[in-house]
């Protein structure tokens, strides 16, 4: 179990994060999502003990490993860095052995062989890092991170160097590993689909704060703000005046959203007239950019499977089910 309580940090008097609190239970995968530079890696580095000066507490198990008063260097944490941070002048075996510097020679040899076998990289043990594929390098990085049987696994963009098929397979493999070993895992990614598919819980960081921390499915269904909704889901924001005309109540500080998949268009008359501004082919579907004719608003997107009879500049009708509209904080 890892617990972060009232974590905050500044660099050169610039406030980066404040009041960040969350727990990760054994066997749980938590993903941190947020725009570039919001402080996700800084949270991982602080848990790993690489970032010493911060506010609040970081506890692993029942032990507080980091606060103003206590700082414990040796933590049961495995860290997989974004670029894997393998040593280019050492071979695979030596890279893994590096993490086991405290063990006597014989025990180190036994543990390295166990890890080479567990992560299926025995045949590469004498290779230099540049002789490995991205997926093989990733396995070496994971083997090294797991060498000392950590309780916590930190993963910074672990799939970013892998192609789509390998990403998919590695994700399943890694998820199984975390569950089997009962690790508390914290993952940083930019990919919301990846976050939704691998995580038990998701934390969204925005403007220095953890703005929502929740079960992945629950957060997807119930984003608590426009920022979270935009980050996690494909949504359209609907004009407040349109919402009022639909007979729904909406306060000034609220916004109405609807999932893109819940918006349909047709040429048949209904209450909401829109104009097609653009049509893009996206493979499995076409994306239409639409503008409301009777309401001032930003453009909205609708996905359609075919564009028979639909052309740019056409005026068509948008259909939505009122029950699919969510009213949330701005
Ligand atoms: N050691 C440091 N000294 C000064 N500023 C730092 C230091 N480490 C990080 N920062 C700053 O803190 C902010 C957060 O950085 P961090 O790497 O944690 O963001 P991130 O959310 O992981 O970004 P990305 O998604 O782009 O990897 C950035 O503005 C960065 O420039």
UniProtKB/TrEMBL annotation:
Q: Which InterPro entries match?
A: AAA+_ATPase (IPR003593), ABC_SmlMolc_Importer (IPR050093), ABC_transporter-like_ATP-bd (IPR003439), ABC_transporter-like_CS (IPR017871), ABC_transpr_FbpC (IPR015853), Mo/tungstate-bd_C_term_dom (IPR008995), P-loop_NTPase (IPR027417)
- Sorted alphabetically, which keywords does the UniProt record give? ATP-binding, Cell membrane, Ion transport, Iron, Iron transport, Membrane, Nucleotide-binding, Transport
Q: Where is the ABC transporter domain?
A: 2-232
Q: Name one GO cellular component term.
A: membrane
Its domain of life reads Bacteria
One molecular function GO term is: ATP binding
- The keyword Transport is annotated on this UniProt entry: yes
Biological processes, Gene Ontology terms: quaternary ammonium group transport
> Is Transferase included in the keywords of this UniProt record?
no
One Pfam family from the record: ABC_tran
Name of this chain's protein: Iron ABC transporter ATP-binding protein
Q: Which organism is it from?
A: Malaciobacter halophilus
Lineage of source species: Bacteria, Pseudomonadati, Campylobacterota, Epsilonproteobacteria, Campylobacterales
């Amino acid at each position: 179990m890892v617990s972060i309580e009232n974590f905050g940090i500044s660099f050169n008097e610039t406030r980066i994060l404040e009041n960040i609190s969350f727990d990760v239970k054994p066997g749980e995968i938590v993903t941190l999502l947020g725009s570039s530079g919001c402080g996700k890696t800084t949270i991982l580095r602080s848990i790993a003990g690489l970032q010493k000066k911060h506010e609040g507490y970081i506890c692993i198990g029942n032990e507080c490993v980091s606060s103003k008063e206590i700082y414990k260097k040796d933590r049961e944490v495995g860290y997989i860095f974004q670029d894997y941070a393998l040593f280019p002048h050492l071979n695979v075996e030596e890279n893994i052995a590096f993490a086991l510097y405290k063990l006597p020679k014989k025990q180190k040899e036994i543990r390295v062989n166990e890890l080479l076998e567990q992560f299926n990289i025995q045949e590469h043990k004498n290779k230099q890092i540049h002789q490995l594929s991205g997926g093989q390098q990733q396995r070496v990085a994971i083997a090294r991170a797991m060498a000392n049987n950590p309780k916590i696994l930190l993963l910074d963009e672990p799939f970013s160097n892998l192609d789509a098929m390998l990403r998919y397979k590695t994700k399943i493999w890694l998820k199984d590993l975390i569950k089997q070993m009962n690790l508390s895992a914290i993952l940083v990614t930019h990919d919301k689909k990846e976050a939704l598919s691998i995580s038990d819980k998701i934390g969204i960081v925005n403007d220095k704060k953890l703005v929502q921390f929740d079960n992945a499915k629950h957060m997807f269904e119930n984003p608590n703000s426009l920022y979270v909704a935009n980050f996690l889901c494909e949504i359209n924001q609907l004009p407040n005046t349109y919402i009022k005309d639909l007979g729904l109540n909406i306060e000034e500080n609220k916004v109405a959203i609807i999932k893109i998949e819940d918006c349909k268009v047709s040429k048949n008359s209904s209450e909401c007239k829109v104009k097609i501004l653009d049509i893009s082919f996206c493979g499995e579907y076409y994306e239409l950019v639409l503008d409301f004719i009777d309401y001032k608003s930003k453009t909205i997107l609708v996905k359609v499977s075919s564009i028979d009879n639909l052309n740019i500049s056409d005026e068509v009708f948008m259909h939505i089910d009122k029950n699919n509209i969510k009213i949330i904080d701005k």
